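Task: sequence in, structure out. Protein: 1-acyl-sn-glycerol-3-phosphate acyltransferase.
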Amino acid sequence: MKIIRGLHAGYAVFTFSLTFLIFLPLLMIPVYFPRQFHLVGVFNRWWARVFLTLIFIPFKNEYRAKLDKNKPYIFCPNHFSYLDIPAMGLNKVNSIFVGKSDMEKIPLFGFMYKKLHITVNRGSLKSRYGTFLRSCLAIDEGKSLMIFPEGGILTANPPEMTRFKDGPFRTAIEKQIAIIPVTIPYNWIILPDSSFLPRRHEMKIIYHEPIETQGLTLADMPALKQKTYEVINSELKKHLNEH
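Result:
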């Protein structure tokens, strides 16, 4: 069984690289024509669908509320697996990622990621503040943001989440836009952080009802973080009990 999973893992890495190279010319369009930034979400969606289909992982998006595709949001998903990135690429609302600057070191992919998305060095106060300013500017330009509020794959006991960072919630309050909690219940089973051997299981992404921030101030940020955490955590526990 491990041999088959190992072959599947090798095939998945090859497929990831091949599909990325195929889509790279398309992803360069919004790099050179920034006003076409909506194409980032479109091409991410195409790539994610092709990649996941080719590696035989079924997927399903579930939206608990109707979202306005022309309205900016901040999406906050739990983060237990490297598969969470293509999972969030399936989002029907065109979005850009706010992620760790380590992604910039990946050949070709890092160049594209830095140009199209927002990166942050979490160990640098200056970088974190710069990311906050760029995030606010992106929202002013009409972009939705995808931010993993845990700040990375940090938990030692999935599906238990670690404490949420302030960034997405401070930005949402500053710009008075809604937070969308997102639960990804099974990716830690399909591809845990401790292993590169994938397991067969349906991928599911649940977009919860928006949490509005109209009228909130920074004094409300702890409560906003806690509410978002509880929405995601409750759904994780529900799926764990059903699994």
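The two ends are 21 Å apart (CA to CA).
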